[in-house]
Write a structure and sequence with these properties.
This protein has 17 helices and 6 strands. It has 422 residues and is mostly helical. The protein folds into 2 domains: 196 residues; 210 residues, HAD superfamily/HAD-like (Rossmann fold, 3-Layer(aba) Sandwich), CATH 3.40.50. Strands 3-2-1-4-5-6 form a 6-stranded parallel beta sheet, with helices on both faces. The radius of gyration is 25 Å and the shape is globular. The C terminus is likely disordered.
């Protein structure tokens, strides 16, 4: 019995403890992100949860595997595999943390400086440094792996020397950029200290940028086609209240706050009650019936692939908006509900969003109020001409065009105009 229980306790305990610690750390980061909207650092650090858990689990297994007395004849090989996994996952975690700190620093810079040429120039420099740093971390990780094999130690030592030379060359080639990068790191860590201690530490980032965009999205008719679900809710609301509602018409003019539509069908004194009933019926009738719009997942994935953040800022009741995102598996970094037109600017500013994507002229207003680039998609109640006339800098047919536009936007700098589609 001991031969069975021992490996179960060692391996199972390591896995369970990893999951518990990972869950606790992720919860703390999520709470910090919710409390400190002035910095995206905490939300960005959550992207390191997978490598963090892998490091933790591998380290515990590496340290306790001998106690499991499992496959003892292969213990050397298993120990080496665990060591290699630990080295690789540690390198992965270091790259993720460094990317989060640099992106936080850039966000502060982009908020303070609106000179596109300057942003474009520094973005190119720092992007190069980021790639070099990632390469150095990768080379060091591979060298450390080779050093675990006695026959390959000479090759590992050569790789470590190569990484040192590469670092020296990169430092000489970009001294000013590195100084900007270190200034950015100092400010980013200052954000961490300020969040933890509550001290008001001021900092200004000069000449540091890596164009990792924060992009805001509207929800209804931008990311999701909520018309079928909302129509079903209006039909049920009509049946329960005995009030006539043209559900097709109501579902065709989504965008503004719910109460604005309710006023078309109910007297003013009943609006609040009818809106509450609508929101209460919504989870049962609307969520499962609502699909993601074409390109929605790919748009969010493209932002994350570029090292950016995707946030949702919507007029929809936030708990119901969250149900949609969870049901469809849309992995966004933050969600803000019950905000419309100019009101959306508050959330966009808090997360330093450079771009806001929406389908309604109210979304164009929200983007411009926040000082963000307005990217409109003609998938909602407003056609391309209306959106363009409202002032949208970029008009796309739908989100399937967004990844290619984003690629141009990131490559060409923060102007956005060169990437416009009509």
């Amino acid at each position: 019995m001991e031969n069975v229980l021992r490996p179960v306790i060692v391996v199972g305990g390591s896995v369970v403890l990893t999951l518990l610690v990972g869950w606790a750390v992720d919860r703390l980061l999520r709470r910090a992100d919710g409390r400190h909207h002035e910095t995206p650092l905490w939300g960005l650090l959550r992207r390191g949860r997978v490598p963090f858990q892998l490091v933790l689990c591998t380290a515990m297994l590496r340290g306790s595997y001998a106690e499991a007395k499992l496959l003892e004849e292969h213990s050397i090989g298993i120990g080496r595999i665990l060591t290699l996994t630990l080295i690789g996952s540690t390198a992965w975690l270091v790259v993720r943390i460094a990317a989060a700190v640099v992106e936080t620093s850039y966000t502060r810079y982009a908020t303070a400086h609106r000179d596109p040429a300057r942003v474009r120039r520094v973005r190119t420099q720092v992007s190069l440094i980021q790639r070099v740093v990632s390469a150095i971390v990768g080379v060091v990780a591979v060298a450390a792996m080779l050093l675990t094999f006695p026959a390959m130690r000479a090759a590992g030592a050569s790789l470590l020397a190569s990484a040192g030379v590469l670092g020296i060359v990169a430092g000489v080639a970009a001294q000013s950029t590195l100084s900007n990068l270190f200034a950015g790191l100092q400010i980013a860590f200052g954000d961490m200290v300020r969040s933890l201690t509550g001290d008001a530490v001021a900092g200004t980032l000069e000449g540091m940028a890596a164009h990792s965009p924060t992009v805001g999205f509207d929800l209804d008719m931008t990311l999701i086609d909520s018309r079928p679900g909302i129509k079903a809710v209006y039909q049920e609301l009509s049946a329960r209240t005995g009030t006539f509602i043209d559900a097709d018409l109501a579902a065709s003019r989504l965008g503004p706050p719910l109460e604005q539509e309710i006023r078309h069908w109910f007297p003013e004194e009943q609006v609040a009650e009818a809106a509450d009933l609508f929101r209460g019926l919504y989870p049962q009738y609307a969520v499962a019936a609502t699909p993601a719009l074409p390109g929605a997942r790919e748009a969010i994935d493209a932002i994350h692939a570029a090292g950016g953040r995707a946030i949702v800022v919507t007029a929809k009741y936030e708990p119901n908006a969250k149900l949609h995102l969870e049901h469809l598996g849309l992995d966004v970094d933050a969600l803000f509900g019950s905000l419309w037109a100019e009101g959306k600017a508050e959330a966009l500013r808090k997360h330093h969003a450079q771009v806001y994507v929406g389908d309604h002229i109210g979304d164009v207003v929200g983007a411009h109020t926040a000082g963000a680039l307005s990217v409109a998609v003609a998938t909602g109640p407003c056609d391309a001409a209306e959106l363009r006339n409202a002032g949208a800098e970029v008009v796309l047919a739908d989100l399937t065009e967004f990844p290619s536009w984003l690629e141009r936007y990131v490559a060409e700098g923060a102007d956005g105009g060169d990437g416009a589609a009509t």
